[in-house]
Amino acid sequence: MRRCPPSPCARPVIPGLALSLLLALSGCGGESGEEGREAMASDRAMLVQADKAREQAVDITEHTIGRIRARTAPTLRAEVAGRVVGLEVDAGEPVRQGELLATLDAEPFRLARDAARSEVDRLRAQQRNQQRQVERLRAQAEEQYVSESELDAATTALDEIRARLAGAEARLEQAQRDLRLTRIRAPVEGRVVERHISPGDYPGVGEPLFELVAPEGLRAELPLPETAAARVEPGMGVRLWLPSAPEEVVEARVTALRERVGDASRAFDALVDFDNPGNWRDGAGVVGNIVRDHLPSAVVVDETSVVQRPAGEVVYALEDGQAVEKVVETGFRFDGQVVIREGLAAGTTIARDGADYLSDGAAVRLRGGDDG
């Protein structure tokens, strides 16, 4: 079978269409092509959050969490032994200075007082009689009716009675004191934090009865590591607040430094005495910032703006849509911020969120709302 030659009308038209499309694109693609390239570049730019380096005053502080103690916290101990016959207060109750807390059986002490008083009365009567005898003998001795030896013996007897009377009076005073000590009274105004006795107990001399705290004068014990010893000293300012009420800040000063006995870490406590602002209690936790220096004018940035690179710590300044790497020297860090000692001027626009992903010269674009 013989094939017919292809007709001119049946020749492929694809090359002609391609040429027409190419001409059409080249004729209208000048301005649109430039916009396309800019769009592609914008898509490749890193999206960052901008911030500015701020100039502000900064306090250099040592941050610590410690414990509140009452400066006056007496433990009342039995000064006489006796059975508990009365109990007036319990743990947690407030007390006034001089208020009766408990009573011990006073009968044995009352009997001892009465016996001591009788002895004093007897010796006082003897002293009066002997005093009259000495005066009579002295008058007779002047008339030489009695010898000097008789007068001397009477005088010696009087001295002995006086000595015994002094001892009896001291015993009477002790008996009266012991009787008073059967009534246990609060030495300070405060609060009972612990009761160690119950009715019917028989505490011996020296055994604890009550533990009190006086809430007016408080002391913060702020633990610090050994490395802070050279940086903290008495007289430095301190800001104190309770974790539950950070808005209520007490200003005070470091009173003293105290080493922790038996602590292998060689840590120490900064002791801060202060007046109770109202409702702070012994044993509560307390947050303390010890102000060891003050910078009146420091450059400060957010910590997320500072990243680590081979050259060291850097921040990225934002200039004409590009990230410019600036090596900086950092200092004190506080509340998510860091002081820049060198390498950055206040007011410089820098990258904050997204700085970790930047490099020097990288294209950047700002998130909505940033003004760069």
Automatic annotation (TrEMBL):
Superkingdom of origin organism: Bacteria
Domain named CusB-like beta-barrel: residues: 223-278
GO molecular function: efflux transmembrane transporter activity
Keywords annotated in UniProt: Coiled coil
A GO-annotated cellular component: efflux pump complex
Residues in CzcB-like barrel-sandwich hybrid domain copies: 78-202
Gene3D superfamilies to which the protein is assigned, alphabetical: 2.40.30.170, 2.40.420.20, 2.40.50.100, Helix hairpin bin (1.10.287.470)
Any coiled-coil regions, as ranges: 113-185
Signal peptide start-end: none
PROSITE patterns with a match to the protein in the record: PROKAR_LIPOPROTEIN
TM ranges: none
Pfam family, one: Beta-barrel_RND_2
Protein family (similarity comment): Belongs to the membrane fusion protein (MFP) (TC 8.A.1) family.
The name this protein goes by in its record: RND family efflux transporter, MFP subunit
